[in-house]
Amino acid sequence: MARLRVKALDHDDYHYDEGAPPVVHFENVGVRYGMGPEVLRDLTFSIEPNSFQFLTGPSGAGKTTLLRLILLSVKPTRGLISMFGEDVSRISKDELTSLRRRMGVVFQDFRLLDHLTTYENVALPLRVQGKEESSYRAEVVELLRWVGLGDRMHMLPPVLSGGEKQRAAIARALIVRPDLLLADEPTGNVDPSLARRLLRLFIELNRLGTSVVIATHDFSLMDQLDVRRLVLGDGQLHIDG
User: Fold this and answer.
1) Torsion sign, CA atoms 7, 12, 13, 15
2) Pick from 3, 4, 2, 1: nearest CA to 203
3) Among 34, 63, 186, 220, which has the minimal tally of Cβ within 10 Å of its Cβ?
């Protein structure tokens, strides 16, 4: 299969500061739980603005832990983590909240609110930002139709299938056009055709300026794109490409 190339952004599409710091930078980061050995160690890498990469490795390698480190929901045992040029160990709680709002996240367990409709779940990040529904309704509806949920937008999550919940979670992460998107197995519950369509959506978001990190063990998905791979194994990170 021929691989797609994620090209550098055209300046007509998006304008950004070429001297901007990395979106994420790890320097000799290690993590252990309790008194056990480090599950991740000596992690040193950067995620640059407007970049696209896959995070991969065998089950249990620590992909989800690494994503949580980037999300700032897990603290490192040692080392330095900076986000958007800010040392996260030195910032206030309010600044931490501001950094998290610049990220979109797709979790494996979806984390949809069962008492809200599909539409309301996807629109929730915009409501939290204080935006009026009239300013975003058309965009939410269009995105839901794009991911194949146009006829499910008024349904509650308990009646959705696993694949439909997955797509709703993806739409919710994308609706704010985050500076950084973290996706943990985002195509794990959809068929290959829809997986490729969702991948196109991630590519388009990247073209608009978002750095994308997709955690997956699906080689058929990764082989569709000619991008960098962050490979976890034996607690360490290796970079391919």
Assistant:
1) positive
2) 4
3) 34
Helix (H) or strand (E) holding 199: helix 192-207
CA distance 128 to 180: 18
User: Measuring CA to CA, how many Å separate 231 from each of 32, 63, 65, 202?
Assistant: 19, 9, 14, 20
Kindly report the number of other CB atoms within 10 A of residue 175's CB atom. 19
Neighbours of 133 (CB within 10 A): 11
Q: Is residue 128 within a helix (H) or strand (E), and if so which, with residue range?
A: helix 118-128
- All structural domains of the chain with their residue ranges: 118-176
Angle at 16 between CA 174 and CA 240, to 5 degrees: 70
Match 């509650």 to its residue by tokens.
156
Non-local (6+) Cβ contacts of 51 within 8 A are: 23, 206, 211, 212, 228
Task: Please give the pLDDT value at position 6.
Answer: 42
For residue range 179-223, list pLDDT tens digits in order.
999 999 888 877 888 888 888 889 988 998 999 999 998 888 899
Alpha carbons 67 and 82: distance in angstroms, whole number: 14
Could you tell me which of 57, 68, 28, 60 has the C-alpha nearest to residue 44?
Answer: 28
Neighbours of 139 (CB within 10 A): 14
**Residue 86: what are its φ and ψ, rounded to 5°?**
-105, 130
Interatomic CA distance for residues 88 and 84, integer angstroms? 10
Give the end-to-end CA distance of the chain in Å, rounded to a whole number.
18
